[in-house]
Structure formats: structure tokens, C-alpha cells
Amino acid sequence: MEQGIWALIRDYQTLIVGIPSFIIIIITIILTYKQIRDMRETRYSELFLEAYRIWDSKELVESRQLIMEIVTKNQNLCQKIEEYEKSDATKYLTIIKVGSFFESLGILVKRFIKVELVSDFFRSSILNYYKYYEEWIKKKHDEGETRLFENFEELAKMLKNCN
Questions:
Q1: Which of 77, 98, 111, 137 is the most exposed place for a label (fewest CB within 10 A)?
Q2: Same domain, residue pair 100 and 143
Q3: pTM
Q4: Cβ neighbours for 51, distance < 8 A, ≥ 6 positions apart
């Protein structure tokens, strides 16, 4: 019997070594895939945290303040944007920064970041600012600038339907 086992091992040596090697390779591939997926999720989270840091930057705070000044005085944001576009480039660029930020965030949601994460942090801001910008965005679309803030608009619609 002992000779039979050794003969079996000798005859099937390649198979006996090959099966555990194959199993080890499969386990290594699975673990590598999980590690790469986790690294990607970590990078996306870092990307989102960077976006959150930008939201609190001096430039965006100034833009939000300007918008709130206009809105609290019951002035029409669309008219103010058009006015600044013609007469004050600095204020024009300042007033559209929030929309540009949400446009960028919309692109990130399309490609990298989960909408639920954005919803947790920015839902009310996105929906409120979209209401402020909506008239201007639609007017620009009607004038042929159909891609202007399209990702911001799409993101707002997504979040409006997301509870």
C-alpha cells in the first residue's frame, strides 16, 4: 500500500503540485482585485473630500454670499447674471462659480462618485442653488448654449428624485 501511494504521487506529481498552485493563483487574483477596488473607493472619497474643501474656499464663499445678497433682496438672479455679464466681469465670474462647482460635481457623479455621497453632503444646497440658477440656465439653453450647466441640471434632477 505504501508503495502504491508513492507510485500514485510519482505518477500524478504535476497534478498534485498544479492544483494547489492554481488555487493560490486564484486567491491572489481575488485579493488583488479587492485591494484595487478598495484603493479606487479611497481615491474617490479623497476626490469628494477635496470637492468639499473647495466648497468652503474663499472664492465659493464669496460667490454664495453674492447670490444670497441678490436672493434676499428679492432680485432676479437671472437678470443679475445677465447684467454682470455685460457690465462687471468680476461679479459675473463670481456669481457663476457656485453653478460651475455643481457642474463639476455633476461630472464627478457621472464618472466617479456615488450620488448618495453627494446627496448626504450637498443635496439641499444643490436643489436650492439650482432653483436660483434655473431660469438663467433654461434661457441660455434656449439661446443655443445647450450644454451650459447640463451636469448641474442633471444632478439637481437626480437629487430631486432621490429621497
A1: 111
A2: yes
A3: 0.76
A4: 101, 104, 105, 108
